[in-house]
Model the fold of this input.
Amino acid sequence: MTLRRKTFLYSILLTIIIGALFLGYILIMLPDLYVADTQEQFIKDIKKVHLTYIEEGNYKNITPLNYASTISIDFYKNEDRVTINSKAINYDVNIQTEEQRQMLANIRSYFNGLVNNDKKEFNYKIQDIFFALTDSFTHWTPESKQVFLNQFQSTGYIDTTNDEFPSEEINTDFFQIDDKTIIISSTARIGDEHYVSNIGFTNNTDRYIMTIAPQMQPSTRQILPVTIRSLPMVAAVLILVVLIGSLFFAQNIVRPIVNLSNQTEALKYKNIESDQSVDVTGTMEIEELAENLNRLYQTQQSQFRQLKQMGERQRIFLQSSSHQLKTPLAAALMLTDGMIHKIGKYKDTETYLLELKQQLRKMETLISTILSTNHLTETDEPVLVDIAELAQRLLEEREALFEQRQMEWQIEGAASRIVESTILTYILENLIDNAINHGKPQSTLTLRISDQIIQLENSNASIDEELLPYVFEPFVTGEDGGHGMGLYLVRYYATLIQADVNIENLDNSVLVTITFQN
Done:
């Protein structure tokens, strides 16, 4: 199955899962959340209206949710006066009759008693205030009632016999705003309908201020049909959005991956030494993948070149070895034939048997050196090596040779590193032996050791400038003879432990520098 097809199927599955969760959320959670949010908005509205009215004293800059029914009443403490304000009305009522004054006194008494009472008692007191208002108004004489109504320039009645709101079905919440202001939210349920009365009450220095905002709260039963009717459109939009997102994903993610796959497939048929890189395009992750592939190809090319160079060196080494073996082998055969046939001076077999043995020894040494090139790398593992301690041991083992050559040695510095111990030992042994073999009397071999560099300086010595560029080639020898393999193997083994070796002539000495690459 292609990546595009998989992406399409995953998108469909994702659409089904997300759609089921979203639609379930709409059907189960959203109506209740909407009702709760509406109630919260009612509380915020009464708080804003009430506090703004206290600050400004009018509804000029107030726009309540319930535009027509929200009203604020000021009951003055030291005046026979009541003010009524809303968005539509602004009444200032002056109390004229004794009955009205008594009613206002009762209201003040209730309000005054509310200050130190608990919330439950406060709820009952609020109800008592409304009942007192209605009771006082109901029992007025027709003349008093008409006078009161005339002050409002309106007519109407208050029915105190309606018992549609039994107290056990009223749920009241209290919200303390500050030490003077409290918000009361009472919800009454009749059947499936919910009626909310939000009241803000403030005990100011000169008056009691009450803001009343009745609301009808929507119920879940009312919201659910609307929600169900909107489900087809919601599902269609959801599917469309997910499919568009899937298409966008396929264009921006799948296509770069397919392009990257095609490019890597084409690289299989290219020469490894040719340019092997992929285009770095796509998202950040695709770009990172492409860059990692390019780095991988670069590493492979570098390793291939190293292997190619190593193979070329081994080829040259074997050719040179074969050539070097021919000379002692031809000499040995010539001596053997001469002694077998008793030709001329070769009749003296005792003398020429010794020379034959020397030629065989040369071949043995050369063959042992060739075989050792693989032996060290097969058996050695990296360990922590104290280089100064290793050098000290190797120099002390050759103390007799130093005395014989009338030479001295010294070590400067110290360092430890993780390296193949056998290979490093072989390198130092060859360099020390070379210094002894080519050293002059009264000269000094100095080893300087640091974290990244090992230097061997042999004083009172030099290398022929014409020979210097070729000292690391196999079978290159100086005036002192030798088989010409020592420095070649030193450089060969140095590459195995990620080190470079360099030889140079100084004013009156030869300096060998081993530099570790890491």
Summary: The chain has a mean pLDDT of 77. Residues 202 and 353 are 131 Å apart (CA to CA).
